[in-house]
Each structure stands twice: as structure tokens, then as C-alpha cells.
Amino acid sequence: MILRSPTLLLTTLLALTLAGCSSASTPPATPSSTADQPTSAGHGAVTGAAEVKEPQRHLVAIDTAGKASTLDLLSGSPSLLDPVTPPDTVTSDGRYVFAANSTGVDILDSGVWTWDHGDHSHFYRGEAATIGTLPGKGTATIAFGPLSTAGTTGLFFPDSGDAVLLDNSALSDGTISESLRMTGTPHAGIMAPLGKGAVVTQSGDDGVAASLRALDATGKELTTAGCPAAAGTITTRVGLVIGCADGAVLATSDGDSPTLEHIPYPDGAAAPATEFNARKGRPTAAGIGTDKGVWLLNTRQKSWEWLPTTTPVIAAAAVDNAARHVVVVGADGRVSVYAQGDKEPLATTAPLLGKSLDTPNLAEHIQLTVDSERAYLNAPAEGVVYEIAYADGARIARTLTLPTEASHLVETGR
């Protein structure tokens, strides 16, 4: 794929030869023309990309017709990307962009990513590219592992029951390669990576996901767990979360031995969470369902907390920083910032989404993403993306525009 703005391209796209794993505060070695084959694959390095000092955060916007663009949040430089098939959903693992429709999934490489190494991170910048399309029947549910350059990505096609794991290393080479494919009963299911294998939903007699199966890399079943009406998944610092009608299952893997642990809702709980969102790589996730409020799942403590709100919630994300911020978007178009444990917001914006909420085909695609400093919220009918300083009184730091309408929005470089 050709980026149509030269400002986004690096003049030299070379990998680094790293002698060891240095902290993010240490200036990286100068890229060298002899470093064509990265020696630090365990740190996220990929041939043709350079390690840089700070996260290369970008926004990727896709409109209802499939036109795509990106905005460099550091330089403010916008660029057009190759179009995709008009998508039903758009998701990202922080590097790759997955645009799903009823006939398959188009995959773009944003060219920027972060390698989380626990106590520090490595940041990379390369060239954006179109990887290709994975055909499938029904709009796929897509689940990510902790890293974009290693491990796998899971896809489940509801109309066929096909469950697929894609090799992330192959994606970094511009190739779609399936490491595992299984066919089950068609249903609204989940295939999520776990260790070298995966967790996949199993439907009940009513055609609704009812249980989970942990698989090894060959598809062999290792263990199972009940999970009625399974819906929503996220990978946290601790493990893989899959939502259930009666709580959630936390899946972890110690070598070749997966564990599926049920975390029940407290007695008298509100409606279950069916989608989850959080700052990447943190242990706490925010979940929303049909009731007024937000579920907060601490996967380290294996506990739930209910955060009530005065209006229905259309999006929420747990920042899980020192201040334990939670960013919540209400059905009134206001953004509120809470401190986890408090029942009243620290700050609330004016309504931001009036036109978008009044446009049904746009309202369902309002998306919230958070990183360590900012939250981003698309207002497609208004034609903007709001950058919100959640730690500074929910201040609107910038009102951003991209070359294409942000009917769908994801953040990459995380």
C-alpha cells in the first residue's frame, strides 16, 4: 500500500541491531545500513522498521464507504491509506487494523507499534501497508493477544462457525498465515489466543455460546469451563478475559497448561458486561452491558466493582493508572472521568456527540480508546475526533480532523 503523504514515511526504514534490552528512557542505537536482519526479535524488532524513543501513536479512521486515513498524533501529519471493503466493525491490537464485514476481514498494517517488555517498552516505526483479506462468512469477532508482533490473533466467523488463529509474525512480513483453523457450530462465538493455543466458545443446543474450550497449538482440547452467553473479550496484563452471563472466565497459561477460572458477579448484580475496554497492558478492564453503569474487573485481584452512572453508557475504558481513572461516555454525549472507587465523576464535559447520536448508522460505531496520557473519541457526524486529557479535568486538549470521516476509529502505536 502506498501512503499518499510523504511526510509520514521515514527516510530510512532500517531495523536496529540491539546488543541487549535497554530501558525506554535510554536513547536507541542509530539505525545502520548493516542492520537488515534484526537480532532483537524478542523485543518486537522487524526488518524495515526503526526503533524510536517514544510511542508513535496514530489514529486510523475509516468511513462507511471504506475510505481510510491516518493521523500522526506527534507531528499532526495526515495521510490517506488504501481503502477497504465497507466495514461493519473496525478493531486493532495497537498495530494491525482489522476491518470486518459480512464476507471477510481486511487487514492493514499501520506501521507503528509498541513492544511491552514488562518493566519498560520498545517503540517502532515502519511503513504502513495493506496486508490482504481473510474471507469468511459473517462479521468476525476478533480477539488479540498481548503483543502484535508475536503470538497470534483470533477470529471467529459466526455464519460458518470457522475459528481461525493468524500468525502475527507472518503479518509483520505482510503475509496472512493461519496457524490453526477449526470449524464448529455457527453461532456468535469467540476464538481468542492463549499462550501457544487458544480458547474457543462452544454453542449450546439453543445456538448460543455456552462453554469454553482451551486448545493447544494443534487444536487439541486441554480443558473446558462453563460460560453461559459468552460475549466480549479482552487480554489484560494478567490473562485473557471472556465475559459470561454469570461473570467472566479468566484464562491463563503456564507453559502448556491452561487454566480457566470463573470470576462470578456479586449477588444482586446488574446486567452482565458484553464488551470490555481498557488501556492496553493493564490488569483492570471496564465492561458495559444494558444497565446504567460500568463493571470494573480487576484481573489481578479477581474481583468486580460496579460503578453506577446516571445515564446509560455507550462506551467506557479503564485507564488503570495511579489515579485509577475510568473514562465513561454517556448516552447524552458527555464524557465523564471517574476515579475507581468513587461514585461521583471527577469531571464531565459538555455534550460532544449530539449529531452522531442522532444518526443511527453512526451512533453504533462511536468508539473510545485510551492510552497513558489521552482518550480519543470519534464524533463522525460532527466530523471530528476529540482528544481528551482525562487527568486534567476532562479537558478537550485537541479537536482533530482526518482526511476521511471517522465512522470507525482505532489508535495504533500503543
Automatic annotation (TrEMBL):
InterPro entries: Quino_amine_DH_bsu. This is ABC transporter. Residues 25-41 have a biased composition (Low complexity). Residues 1-24 form the signal peptide. Residues 25-45 are annotated as: Disordered. Keywords: Signal. It comes from Arthrobacter psychrolactophilus. It comes from the Bacteria.
